[in-house]
Amino acid sequence: MTISDRTGAPDRTSDGPDGGPGTPDADGLLAEQLLRLTRRLHRIQKHHLEPVGITPAQSRLLRTVAHFGEPPRMADLAARLEVVPRAVTSLVDGLEAGDRVRRVPDPNNRRVIRIELTDAGRATLRELRSARRAAAEDILAPLTVEQREVLGGLLSALVDRGPESGC
Fold first, then answer.
1. With contact defined as beta carbons under 8 Å apart, do 106 and 112 qualify?
2. Cα(91)–Cα(139) distance, rounded to whole angstroms?
3. What is the pLDDT of residues 8-45, one digit of tens each?
């Protein structure tokens, strides 16, 4: 059986003991709300990144490159981002076309290519910080400071689960 919550989104219900209509499936509703929030976060982030001229995926790659102590290899980036190497190649191509990163040879192994930030890439990172703050404020605006703290704790509990929890 399907019902709608106050936003009109479908909610899953579980069957009652007699096979008839049951009570709303709270976990199903939470999952649906999280998925809707994820889509909303993506839309808002994309909106705030448009003036910077970068996609959310490129933003993530640029931030990841910046977190390495030395220019990372493509394979390092793929592993850290948990994507296939081909996806990193496409993202690097786009960032390189915008002069935000450049491919450089590894000083110890000329067959290895590393990715380093350019001055334009560092400037873009500064712009990204402002865009991310603005996007976060858009999302969190309805919440009080206390609610934000509670949400942060709950999200940490979900995100910081160990590898034994599966995907």
1. yes
2. 26
3. 545 444 454 555 455 568 888 988 999 999 899 889 88
Six token digits for residue 14 = 């579980």
Query: Tell me: the pLDDT tens digits for 88-128?
Result: 999 999 999 999 999 999 989 989 999 999 999 999 999 99
The SS3 of residue 12 is strand
Residues contacting residue 57 through CB under 8 Å, at least 6 positions apart: 87, 91
Contact 64, 80 (CB under 8 A): yes
Number of Cβ within a 10 Å radius of residue 49: 19
- What are the residues whose beta carbons fall under 8 Å from the beta carbon of 18, sequence distance 6 or more? none
Q: Which two tokens stand for residue 151?
A: 């949400």
Contact 95, 62 (CB under 8 A): yes
- The residue with tokens 């019902």 is 3
